[in-house]
Design brief:
Blueprint lengths: L7 E3 L6 E3 L8 E3 L6 E4 L5 H20 L3 E5 L2 E5 L1 H10 L3 H30 L7 H11 L5 H15 L4 E4 L1 H17 L16
Antiparallel strand pairs: 1-2, 3-4, 5-6, 5-7
Helix pairs in contact: 1-3, 1-6, 2-3, 3-4
């Protein structure tokens, strides 16, 4: 299915109708009535965005497969991955907190990366992604609830506080989460409603 470029753009805030025009890289178009953002031209092309989504997926796997930190005291050491921490919270009787942690630090970020890559894979082939409308709604709903950056901040605060008591050794998982935080921030900055326009010049 060949995607057609829109000729008109409607402001989501005041319903003003504008004629669509091509933008240079990094430019944005705003409503002449209310000043709201209509659409923008991303700095990266579709191929670069797809590579970014693959990098985010690989980093996500590393972050969840390797331990986050190792704590040592009197010669004894203990390490934990994210899921080991979730299970420990569950066993302590805080089931609700364990579920929220699993959703916000694993399932929502994973779904965001997978859906982003799914859309871009079809866009690179000049095809409309199956379930595009549903995917856009899901991405819009889960983006505010993907809280890897909050986890990173909390982990750093905790490491500093327990540093005077335990021997703290940062493991690959924490560095992977740091990289994932930056990658997800870049992913969340893309306007997927307009991303397929980037391929129009190369698609028949």
């Amino acid at each position: 299915m060949v995607m057609q470029r829109p000729s008109m753009v409607v402001c989501e805030h005041c319903d003003a109708v504008h004629r669509w025009r091509a933008l240079e890289r990094g430019e944005s178009a705003r409503c002449v009535r209310c000043g709201a953002l209509l659409y923008r031209s991303p700095w990266l092309d579709v191929d670069s965005m797809f590579a970014l989504s693959l990098a985010a997926a690989i980093t996500f796997l590393v972050a969840n497969a390797w331990p986050i930190v190792t704590l040592g005291l009197n010669g004894n050491h203990i390490s934990a991955t994210l899921w080991q921490a979730v299970l420990a919270i569950w066993r302590d009787g805080a089931g609700v907190i364990a579920v929220l942690v699993a959703l916000m630090l694993f399932f929502f970020p994973l779904l965001q990366v997978l859906l982003f890559g799914w859309v871009l894979g079809f866009v690179r082939a000049c095809r409309r992604p199956p379930g595009f409308a549903v995917i856009m709604r899901v991405l819009g709903a889960i983006r505010p609830w993907s809280m890897v950056e909050v986890f990173m901040l909390g982990t750093l605060v905790a490491v500093v506080k327990v540093g005077n008591i335990f021997d703290v050794i940062l493991q690959p998982g924490i560095w992977a989460f740091a990289a994932l935080t930056a990658l997800l921030a870049m992913v969340a900055s893309f306007d997927l409603r307009r991303i397929w326009l980037l391929r129009q010049e190369r698609c028949p």
